[in-house]
Specification:
Number of domains: 2
CATH class of the largest domain: Alpha Beta
Number of strands: 5
Helix content: 25-40%
Largest sheet: 5 strands, antiparallel
Order of helices and strands: HHEEEHEEH
CATH topology of the largest domain: Subtilisin Inhibitor
C-alpha cells in the first residue's frame, strides 16, 4: 500500500509539473476579466466584457478602459474625475461592474446623475 501511495504522489507531482511547464504564462497570470453593465433611465441596458493584459472583450474601447482601471488599482471608486462642466439635468445612469482584477474579486455599483457625469467620473471604463 505504501508503494502505491508513493507512486500516486510522484505521478501526481509529475503531472502537475508537466501541466505548469506546458503553459507557463497561463499558470503565472490570471487576466483581469469584468462584466460591465450600463442602464440609462431612458435607454436600453448595455453590457460588455472587458479583459486586460491583453486588452480585449466586447468593450468598444478596451485599451482605454483597461488603462483607466489599472490607474485606479482596479477600483472604479478611485478613478480621478476629469475637470468637465456638465449640465445639471437629471437623467440617472446606473452602472455595475463585476468580475476579477488581478485575482481579486471586484464589485462596483453606482448611479450617476447623467451621462456627462458618468463620463467625467469614470473615463472610458463605462463607455460601452
Amino acid at each position: 500500500m505504501r508503494r502505491f501511495t508513493a507512486l500516486a504522489t510522484v505521478t501526481g507531482a509529475a503531472l502537475v509539473g508537466l501541466l505548469m511547464s506546458a503553459h507557463p504564462a497561463a499558470a503565472a497570470t490570471v487576466p483581469t476579466k469584468v462584466t460591465i453593465t450600463v442602464k440609462p433611465t431612458d435607454g436600453p441596458l448595455r453590457t460588455a466584457t472587458l479583459t486586460c493584459e491583453p486588452a480585449g472583450g466586447t468593450h468598444q474601447a478596451a485599451a482605454a478602459a483597461c488603462a483607466v482601471l489599472v490607474a485606479a488599482g482596479g477600483n472604479p471608486a478611485a478613478i480621478q474625475p476629469a475637470d468637465v462642466m456638465c449640465t445639471m439635468e437629471y437623467a440617472p445612469v446606473k452602472v455595475k461592474m463585476v468580475g476579477r482584477y488581478h485575482r481579486k474579486p471586484v464589485r462596483f455599483k453606482k448611479s450617476y446623475s447623467n451621462s456627462c457625469r458618468l463620463g467625467a467620473e469614470s473615463g472610458a471604463l463605462f463607455g460601452i
